Amino acid sequence: MNVTPLPLSGAFEITLERREDARGYFARTYCDDEFRKAGLNSSWPQMNVSMNLAQGTLRGMHFQRAPQAEVKLVRCLRGRAWDVIVDLRAGSASFGQTTALMLDAEALNAVYIPEGFAHGFQAVLPETLLQYMHSETYAPGHEGGISPFDAALSIDWPLPPARMSPRDEALPALAEITPL
Question: pTM here?
């Protein structure tokens, strides 16, 4: 397992090491010891999947506020997704900045998202399936989000949005939220 820092402090790309033979490959998707040695969260009380039928489906940008603030580990199990995170940490030198990477089922990569970040993605291929591991359970009273189209974020989505939830379409601008 390779842990590579992303441009925003505390965020990482996690890439798996394949062991291939004539049958296919084997890769360890998670290891408590390796995560703890890297100083990463190693408690995941909730796991979810997100199936995205249409190419261009856009979800986000979502976060949870304290005391239910969460670390996420997001991996693409099928297809490809353009994954974006935004630093919303109060007092952070990179507040409001974004970074993005392509999550790809074939590349076996994942993104580790620390507390205080918003997260969203766009399915680049039809039937893209993502797995989320959460350090906290979902708490509706602590959820929030920012518009994935806020000009202040300058997110360069690879495709025109094909499908979005009404909730995500109505998310406020960055300037309208209280930093985390």
Answer: 0.96
